[in-house]
Specification:
Distance between the termini: 53 Å
Shape: globular
Number of domains: 1
Structural class: mainly alpha
CATH architecture: Orthogonal Bundle
Radius of gyration: 22 Å
Number of helices: 17
Largest sheet: none
Order of helices and strands: HHHHHHHHHHHHHHHHH
Length: 385
């Protein structure tokens, strides 16, 4: 799969989010003069890449923890794969590639250590205090508040378009439940650049998790072939053409075919949805009754089949469930201990605790940790307790 130099599918020009400084989506909370050589979204991309929170993704679990192997995806390598896929889709549709890539790079920046197990544990802990943990909303707080790179203000001062996409790429929030997000057009659809991130993410992890699951020895080739139709659709012809080839190489070819089929279908169906709806502008995208970035019904069914297969046979397997249970116990133990006695935390947090409250600040602090850092904090706490 390669990105074309010109759009493969020509959507109406008005559907593309522009990058001119005068456009509302390129506005920043704190004024900064335009750059001589870089567009606003190119500057956002650079700010995200240079952020500490982005670097920490290298030490956070995607599916497998370090005890399995150094070869598996981390949250950072997954993010890079999503960015490559998303940029290809945006290029083919003639969308704003810089905005798309910025959103792909930042889409997982709010995840805590230990993947979804860590997120679920933090959310459960915060519920006891009348609060919630949501990685999209936490990502917004990271880029708007926690990152400190400028003298004049806190945060990365990203454009409105990127901040909107952070919170809306995968979930629709209501202004009734989140009045603090009223500036982000909660009653409207996000731009296509933001809409495509969620499904680019799905494409990336479906194919990557099949790969990592096989590498870990949890999934078996024949079982995948029997239960994942979109994979077998490409495996069988390659096997027939290269009967003497190594199974792993045939597997790789089939996985690439699966990924490409998902991407091409998404591009073509999205273009069809936009043109058949008579949409010619971002305003019309925002007022559409449903999101326009989508697969065909046939491929959507096969995508859901593959996703369900991974949930049954990989994410809920005994080895991973054991790791997830241990991870949740570590997160909850540290959260409860530090909320009960914030003095057990490293010094320098007092002002933030006074401003945000102890439960929220402790959750934010834990969410920023890498897997190895929280394991060290847990070991130190166990020794002291």
């Amino acid at each position: 799969m390669t990105a074309a130099s010109t759009p493969l599918v020509h959507l109406p020009v008005g559907c593309r989010v522009p990058d001119g400084i005068e456009e509302p989506l390129t506005r920043r909370e704190h004024f900064q003069p335009p750059h001589l050589f870089r567009s606003p979204f190119q500057r956002d991309r650079a700010r995200i890449i240079h952020a500490r929170a982005f670097r920490r993704l290298a030490g956070k679990t995607q599916v497998f923890t370090n005890r399995f192997s150094d070869h598996f995806r981390s949250r950072l390598t997954h993010t890079m794969e999503v960015a490559q896929i998303a940029r290809t889709i945006a290029n083919a549709l003639g969308l704003n590639e810089d905005l798309t890539e910025s959103l792909a790079l930042v889409h997982d920046i709010g995840h805590p250590p230990f993947g979804h197990a860590g997120e679920a544990a933090l959310d459960k802990a915060l519920r006891q205090h009348g609060l919630r943990f949501d990685h999209n909303l936490h990502a917004l707080r990271i880029v708007a508040y926690f990152e400190r790179r400028y003298v004049a203000f806190r945060g990365l001062n990203l454009t409105l378009g990127v901040r909107e996409g952070i919170i809306k790429h995968s979930h629709d929030y209501s202004v009734e439940d989140h009045p603090e997000l009223s500036a982000y057009f909660l009653d409207q659809r996000p731009p296509l650049e933001a809409q495509l991130i969620d499904l680019a993410d799905e494409i990336a992890y479906l194919t990557a998790d099949l790969d990592d699951g096989m590498e870990a020895g949890i999934l078996t080739l024949n079982h995948v072939r029997d239960h994942v139709r979109i994979f077998e659709r490409f495996y069988a012809p390659v096997e027939k053409q290269y009967p003497q080839a190594d199974e792993k190489l045939i597997f790789n070819e089939a996985l690439k075919g699966m990924l490409n089929a998902l991407v091409v279908d998404l591009i073509e169906q999205t273009a069809h949805n936009v043109t058949s709806s008579g949409i010619h502008s971002l305003a019309e995208i925002r007022s559409a009754p449903t999101r326009l970035v989508a697969f065909t019904p046939e491929i959507e069914a096969q995508r859901m089949e593959a996703k369900s297969y991974l949930y049954r046979n990989l994410y809920q397997c005994e080895d991973l469930l054991r790791d997830q249970h241990a991870a949740a116990s570590i997160v909850r133990a540290l959260f409860d201990a530090w909320v009960a006695d914030p003095g057990l935390m490293p010094p320098g947090h007092e002002a933030e605790i006074d401003e945000q409250g102890t439960p929220r600040y402790v959750a934010d602090y834990i969410a920023g940790m890498t897997d190895n850092f929280i394991l060290k904090q847990y070991a130190d706490w166990k020794v002291r307790s």
